[in-house]
Amino acid sequence: MPTNNQFSINLPEGWIDTTTFTFQGPLDSGVQHNLVVIVDPSEKKDIDLKAYATRQLDTSKIALPGFELISEKEKNLSPEVEAYEIVYKYIPADEVIIFQKQVILLIDGKGYLFTASFSKKTLKTIASEVDKIIASFVPGINYNDE
């Protein structure tokens, strides 16, 4: 099974990793599916998962035209990893409706934001593939801390 192109890099003092990964999925029902993973390295030990997810949700509400919340809930990716899932739709252009699912994690004080785009139809089909991809997530090792 293919994995992403993984690598490690040492950054000098004053540099910050603001990594964003984009994985392209199938074109189906007029939507080019993708999964975007943003790694937020700023220290998160003073905030809980729901509060962090609410911040992300507030940003989406402001930034996305025609934003409509469909659901939000806490869930477990595994017995050790708690997640917060948000599903919403928005209207980026006339006659175009995009559904997005966000899964937010806080692991060892670092935030991980997974965002996937769907049509109404593929929210019921391709979304299960995306859920499996997210469930396979294993955070990286910071070799400088060892």
Label this structure with key terms.
alpha+beta
Protein model, in words:
- By secondary structure, the protein is α+β, with helices and mostly antiparallel strands.
- Helices cover 17% and strands 42% of the residues.
- The protein has two helices and six strands, in the order E-E-H-E-E-E-E-H.
- A six-stranded antiparallel beta sheet has the order 1-2-6-5-4-3, with helices on both faces.
- A hairpin with a 2-residue loop joins strand 1 and strand 2 (31-40).
- The mean pLDDT is 89.
Question: In terms of per-residue confidence, which ranges show pLDDT below 50 for 5 or more consecutive residues?
Answer: none
Q: Say what oligomer this is.
A: single chain
Helix content: 10-25%
Strand order within the widest sheet? 1-2-6-5-4-3
Spatial gap, N to C terminus:
29 Å
* Radius of gyration computed on alpha carbons: 16 Å
Order of helices and strands: EEHEEEEH
Estimate what percentage of residues fall within beta strands.
Answer: 35-45%
For the report, how would you describe the main beta sheet?
A: 6 strands, antiparallel
Based on secondary structure, the structural category is alpha+beta
Give a concise summary.
It contains two helices and six strands. It is α+β, with helices and mostly antiparallel strands and 146 residues long.
What's the SSE blueprint?
Blueprint (H helix, E strand, L loop, with lengths): L19 E9 L2 E10 L8 H15 L4 E9 L5 E12 L2 E12 L2 E9 L7 H10 L11
Antiparallel strand pairs: 1-2, 2-6, 3-4, 4-5, 5-6
